[in-house]
Structure formats: structure tokens, C-alpha cells
């Protein structure tokens, strides 16, 4: 165990190394990219290999048999391998490059027996390991470069304080994607069947997709706004939501930090009325994906100045104020799509070109680490 622990510490120290050791040409970026691509490839191969599609979400599982998907995974591994080799050539410390090469090789070995892997009947339960890999891969490839190009806090590194905890949040909610999708949706569909809105539902369901989606955004944000305010106002709900507000660094990973119970409650509160109103499942699915990317964006470390747009849509600056530790930032900006709701209900706060001085909750009452935060709301205060 000890050598493993030491290796982990070394990798972590390398990832978190100070700015001068991360400059272009130091082999740091290629090493990180190499590990990222190889790890994503390895996790995808494992999810393709797992019997009964246990580690694949049903939307992705059929894709895994597709040649293009396999080619994509192969390219990931080749890219990860090549990038790691570049890092090995450039960087004095070899741990990043070596890890990337080993991950790519492990994936290749495991991948040898893919052919028959997914033939078995799907199991009734699944864990979204493939979803985790694709999710972090794509959001990372999009958001890391745009955060580097236009950061709000230019001194904040990619591997900032508590980055491992936030990756773990993404991992858990990706693995638990079945429960998280099933629990809010089924009562929603049931509410729809029972609802007395027959003709309204029919009319809503017949609207074109591109019309349904903005209406869903509007309706969902309205319900989300009030649920969010309740989470701030009611003490036992606040204990759950405080976990989300415990983040002291804002970036594309910060939004993932959310207590399991809160995810279920917030999703149910927004999904049940939306589904009861008769929006089609496809429109709701597109919205869920859109909302996912949107929440990643508004937490991101982005210093964008967006006059006019910021009057109509929630921007990173707007949601950063919601996370501010400053007095003026307490209980403001509850909307996640439309600032209009905060204007209407008196919680709007967006001083021109100003940002919070720091993030988190005064006194930092929430402990660090995933498991401590999981039990935090249930502890006697
Ligand atoms: Zn909040
Ligand atoms: Zn947030």
C-alpha cells in the first residue's frame, strides 16, 4: 500500500505544482493532457468490458458497439499515449508521463477482449462510469481552455484547492445517474397522467421542440428560484445547500459540489411540474443537458463582460455573486437562467464590473471532504 500511496502523493504534487513549473514547454500541460485522455479512455474501456452493461448508461451503451465510438476511444488512447511521451521528453520529473503511458497501456490490455463484452443482457441497474469519463472529458476540453483565455481569477490554477473533492462529486453523481434520473422523473410522469390539464398538456406537447425548450427553461427556473430561496431560508434545508456554498474557489468543477439529497429535491421540484405540464420527454432531456452545461458555465472561472446579455441571462458574474462571502452577496441572485426572477422578487444584485472579494460561507462551517459533507446536514449542530 505504501508505494501506491507515495506514487499518488507524487502525482498530486506534480499536478498541483507552482506556476513556474507549469509554463509552456515544461512538459506539464502535455503530462496532464496525457493522463486525462488515457484515463478517460481507460474508464470507457472498463465500462465497455463490464458484464451486463453494468457501468454504462442506456443512452450510451448502444453506442459502444458502434465502430466510430471504438475508433474514438482508440484515438483517445493514442492521443493520451503520445501526449505522455511528449511530457516524458520535456519534463524532468517523469511521474506524469509514466502514469499516462501506463494508463493507456492498461486500457489497451483490457480492451483486447472487448468484442464479446456487451453481448450479455443488460442488467436492471447501471452505474454511469462511461458518463463520468465522457462528461469530464468534454466539459474539461471545453472549459479549461476558455477559462485560461479569459479568467476572472488569473492566479487560480486548474488543480486548485479541493479539486479532488469536486472531481469526486462528479464521479458519484455520474455513477448514481440512474437513481438521480429515475427518482424525480417517475413521480413527474405520474403527476402528468393524473393531472387535470388534459387539453393544455396536449397543446404543450404539440409545440415544436425549439419552442418547448425556452418555455421549459423559464418554467423550471421559476420553480427552481423558489425552491432555491427555501433552501436558503429554512435552516434544515440550508444545511444541505450549505455544502454547495462551501466552495471557496469557483470554476467549471465547483457547480458539481451538491449534497445528494439536494440534487434529488431540486430536480424533483423542477421536473414534476414541467413533466405534469406535458412537455415531451425529448424536450425535457434536451433541457437537462442544456441546464447541465449552463450550470457548469455560470460557476466557471470566467471574467467575461457581457453587457446587455447579463440583463437577460444569468452570467458567470451573476452566479459568482450568489456564491460571494461578502455581506452584500448574502441571499441574492437565486435564478440560474433568467435574472428577471431576481428583479421581480427583489433579490437582484449585479454591480457593474464588480465581483465578490471571496467565496464561501462566513466562518466556513462546512467540513472539507465528500464524506464529511455527506453527513454534515444530519449532524447535531
Ligand atoms: Zn444558493
Ligand atoms: Zn452555484
What does this structure look like?
This protein has 381 residues and is mainly α. The chain has two domains: 2-126, no CATH class; 177-378, no CATH class. The chain is 62% helix and 0% strand. It has helices at 2-15, 28-49, 61-64, 67-90, 95-111, 129-149, 163-175, 177-194, 198-206, 209-233, 235-245, 260-276, 281-299, 309-312, 316-323, 340-344, 370-375. Helix 4 runs antiparallel to helix 5 (95-111), helix 8 packs parallel to helix 12 (260-276) and helix 10 crosses helix 12 (260-276). The longest helix is centred in the middle third of the chain and has 25 residues, at 209-233. The site of one zinc ion (ZN) has 5 residues, from helix 10 and helix 11.
Strand content: under 5%
Overall mean pLDDT score? 91
The low-confidence parts are none
Overall geometry:
globular
Major sheet description: none
Distinct compounds present: zinc ion
Tell me how many strands there are: 0
Cα Rg: 22 Å
**Helix and strand composition category:** mainly alpha
Helical fraction equals: 55-70%
Count of the domains: 2
Count of alpha and pi helical runs: 17
Assembly level = single chain
* SSE sequence, one letter per element: HHHHHHHHHHHHHHHHH
Give the termini separation.
36 Å
